[in-house]
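Memo to structure team: turn this sequence into structure tokens by end of day. - J.P.
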Amino acid sequence: NKYSRKSLTAAFVIVCALAAGALVGIQSTKENISSSHLYQDLSTEAKELWGNDQDTHSDGRVNNGKTQFIAVNEHTRWTPVEHPWEHLVEPHKATTFEVLDPSKDEDVMYEWKIGGNSYEGESIEHTFTEAGISHVVELITYEGGNPVLHETSEMLCKYVRREIRNLTSHERTQFFEAMSVVYNTSTSRGKHLYGAEFKGIEYFI
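Reply from structure team:
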């Protein structure tokens, strides 16, 4: 089957976000779209309009101890997202964790522990899959094979709703292909093909 359940679920989230956004701005009107799973990347003008005066963090920099690192994806490395949380990551997007100003000492090694996975290196990639919760990231610094520093940080995982112009070419292709399925497949047929959470376009209009 050309469309996996994951891609259709992602399309479902996008379509719900678009439908809700058309009705009430950034607030969802569907019960199955939890605000704990979705964040609207607001422009400066929108934040002024809606009065968003919360402190924001946008460059992916993490400073939770002595070792600074960044946590960014293909979007946020070049176009940071402003948000009111300390650290934000996105599901189903490869997040790059990279130590800033790493030691030049050959005896120094960095280990990352994320969601039961272990990685080594100054720069690693991890893909989160569960939205709406915080994920613990452990960074352990070794010197001469011995752990000398153990730091933990929490990353809140949310979908970020972006303007279609800000999507990558690959994301736009996925979006239009998934939208085609949503528009051309009835809810009953879609549930049979893709699972109980599928909704056809008649659900949104």
